[in-house]
UniProtKB/TrEMBL annotation:
PANTHER family: MKI67 FHA DOMAIN-INTERACTING NUCLEOLAR PHOSPHOPROTEIN
Composition-biased stretches (Basic and acidic residues): 12-27
Descriptive protein name: RRM domain-containing protein
Segments forming domain RRM: 41-119
Keyword Nucleus tagged: yes
Compartments, record wording: Nucleus, Nucleolus
Entry keyword set: Nucleus, RNA-binding
Primary residence: nucleus
CDD domains from the UniProt entry: RRM_NIFK_like
Bias (Low complexity): 1-11
InterPro entries: Nucleotide-bd_a/b_plait_sf, RBD_domain_sf, RRM_dom
Ranges annotated as spanning the membrane: none
Lineage of producing organism: Eukaryota, Rhodophyta, Bangiophyceae, Cyanidiales, Cyanidiaceae
Coiled coil start-end: none
Amino acid sequence: MTRSSTNSSTSDRVKASPDVVESRNPSEEAPFPPVDGGLADVVYVGHLPHGFYESELHDYFSQYGAVLQVRVARSARTGRCRGYGWVRFADAVAAQRAVDAMHGYFMLGRVLVVQRVPPERAHPELFRAGRRRFRLEALPRRRPAATASVKHPGRRCAQRRQRKVRQLAALHISYHFPGMESK
């Protein structure tokens, strides 16, 4: 079966589905089109190399069949890739072909881990972000305490220093820390 026949049969199934609403505006499309089998054709891709993100995953895995969605796990704090992701295929044959070809594949210094995700383990909101690009939200930064708000600056340091002097005195060692006179 050629790639063009796979893509046309997939688009026919998606158009024939009663849950898909025809719209001319791409922003009004459903977040992900329902396909026969639901989330049965999801593939986990682990040990992703740096620089191999959503668009690269989509382009690379589309050689095995029609890719419906791609998601790369990212850090909410930094926005960097966490090194794994998921690819949703249009049919089970393409998903299995990708697993057979890519599991253990050495790519950019990493050995990929590619596995099928059982339908009962795939969360229904796995691809909830849809076609939305990742945008890093500005998180509030922790500010250092102002020196005026600190009641006793250096108190803990002085207490620690006094404790060390007592420990040394118990060992019959007389030592004074130079430049650090206890108050």
